[in-house]
Every structure is written in C-alpha cells, then in structure tokens.
Design brief:
alpha+beta, six-stranded antiparallel sheet, 4 helices, 6 strands, 36% helix, globular
C-alpha cells in the first residue's frame, strides 16, 4: 500500500504541477454547506486542507447517517472517477476550512493523457476506497458482531 497521506503527495511533482494548474483551485469549506448529495452528478472532488466534512448516507424518514468524518489531507469523493459518475453518499461541512477542489472531467482527461498521473491517481483512490471499506467493516463488526449485543458471548 502507498505511504502517501494525501493524493497530492502520491503524484510525482511534474504531474502534480500540471494537475494543480489545469484542474484545481483553492476553495473555502463553509460551515454547514452541503458539498454533494447522493444520486447527483459527481463532477468534482476535494483534498481537504483544513476543517472537517462528514460523509453521510440518506436514510428515508430519518436523519442522514454519518459514515465517516474527514479532515486534513483526506480525499473527499471518488464517485467522479467511476461511471456513471454519480454520488453514492452525501457530504456536509461540520468545521469550516479550506480545500483544493478538482474538476473531475479535467482530471480524468489529464489521467488519460499522462499515464504516470493516471496510475498515481487511480492507485491512490483505489487504496483510499479499500482502506475506508476496511474501516467501515471494523465499525460494523463492533456494532453488530457476536459480542456487540451480548457481552456474555
């Protein structure tokens, strides 16, 4: 697994400069802002510089369930990379801060044109998804595993 903490650290410097120049901009993370909603077009993603964002899942008739809280250097969003480019979750800013926002179509185009960049981006995103799915699995086992409801088991 990669030791890079941030997507930007995982990309070689020449490709990183191109990516930042052609597809990225600094943006504020405004407290209580919804960054994206389940089922809507995934046309951008972020690397969080500061602040916190909750990733949530719509639950009919109830408040959205928080799946994870992301902060400094975390990648926010990967649905932009995989067709049909639709968000599977939602995201809500819970602590104001800053982020680097990326135009998803521009990043996909740059990845297609630059194999080194494409490999670095796809690998980092895949590793991030795998790591977060493992974390979710552990949380679910804590909630619903054999000992969760019965301390005697």
């Amino acid at each position: 697994m990669s030791t890079a903490r941030s997507l930007l650290d995982a990309i070689p410097s020449e490709s990183r400069a191109l990516l930042l120049d052609k597809a990225a901009c600094e943006v504020p993370l405004v407290l209580d802002a919804r960054l994206f909603e389940e089922g809507r077009k995934a046309d951008r993603f972020w690397v969080i510089r500061s602040g916190q964002v909750e990733v949530d899942l719509h639950v009919p008739g109830r408040r959205a369930a928080v799946v994870e809280t992301l902060g400094r250097d975390d990648l926010l969003g990967w649905s932009w990379l995989f067709p049909p480019h639709v968000w599977h979750l939602g995201a809500h800013v819970v602590r104001a801060g800053q982020a680097v926002e990326f135009d998803a179509a521009a990043v996909r185009s740059l990845c297609d044109a630059d194999a080194v960049l494409g490999r670095a981006v796809y690998r980092f995103v895949a590793e991030t998804v795998a790591e977060r799915m493992y974390g979710t699995r552990k949380r679910l086992l804590q909630l619903y595993g054999p000992r969760a409801g019965n301390p005697e088991a």
